[in-house]
Specification:
Layout (H helix, E strand, L loop, with lengths): L3 E9 L3 E6 L2 E6 L2 H6 L6 E10 L4 E6 L2 H11 L6 H22 L2 H5 L6 H11 L3 H6 L5 H5 L10 E2 L11 H13 L4 H14 L5 H12 L4
Parallel strand pairs: 3-5
Antiparallel strand pairs: 1-2, 1-4, 1-6, 2-3, 4-5
């Protein structure tokens, strides 16, 4: 399976880009949010990818982080969520937003995505709530940092197994806060919900701040 692509963008379309890797063009479908963050035609880009195999079609989907890719995989496992709906959810909320919404059981946030109804959104939250702690603990492996700086030459590769590395400013803080709360005896789901809520209030909070805020949220209400 193709796990990562690095090359030059040949052209951009409404829902995909064509990436030239050593003369071979790969059509990669992305969420609106991911597409908006990509450079223009002729520029270097690197994306984690997931290959969807159907009887009559092969489709590559591209992601800027491992968390985004993992949520796509998990969202697709929910009945009623196909590739289009998954990208719509990721496009509307972003990977961190999906983590936060599912950890907090926020059905309203999920159903805000185009084409996702209330019943499907509820199913997403119910089925994936227990997955949120593990995904949040991954952080967000950036393609550029995980594989090193993308080369400026035409020496690009199709990589099968990318490394994981934290890159987003708050991702490692959330992962460390989750670990600390787990060591204190809190359940993964409770810890994930508290950290997600705390991170939503203070997106740039450091580890100590997140832990303190999460502990306040987890404290028994008098």
């Amino acid at each position: 399976m193709i796990g990562k692509l690095s090359g030059r963008i040949d052209y951009r379309a409404g829902d995909h880009v064509l990436i030239d890797v050593r003369g071979v063009g790969y059509m990669v479908y992305c969420s609106d949010r991911t597409l908006a963050g990509l450079p223009g035609a002729g520029e270097v880009v690197a994306l984690y990818t997931d290959l969807l195999v159907r009887e009559d079609n092969l489709q590559l989907f591209g992601f800027t982080s491992l968390v985004e890719k993992e949520w796509h995989r998990l969202l697709m496992s929910v009945q009623g969520i196909g590739a289009k709906a998954s990208l719509a959810i990721l496009g509307a909320l972003g990977a961190d937003g999906v983590s936060r919404a599912i950890a907090l059981g926020d059905v309203t946030a999920i159903k805000a995505a185009k084409g996702v109804g209330p019943k499907t959104a509820q199913r997403v939250v119910i089925e994936l709530k227990d997955k949120a702690p593990g995904v949040m603990a991954m952080g967000t492996g950036s393609v550029a940092e995980a594989m090193g700086e993308v080369p400026a030459s035409d020496d690009f590769d199709v990589i099968e197994t990318p490394k994981r590395k934290i890159s987003a400013p708050n991702a490692s803080a959330q992962a460390e806060a989750l670990s600390a709360l787990g060591n204190l005896g809190y359940s993964p789901s409770d810890a994930a919900g508290a950290v997600a809520e705390a991170a939503g209030v203070e997106p740039d909070a450091d580890v100590s701040t997140l832990i303190r805020s999460a502990l306040k949220l987890l404290a028994p209400k008098s």
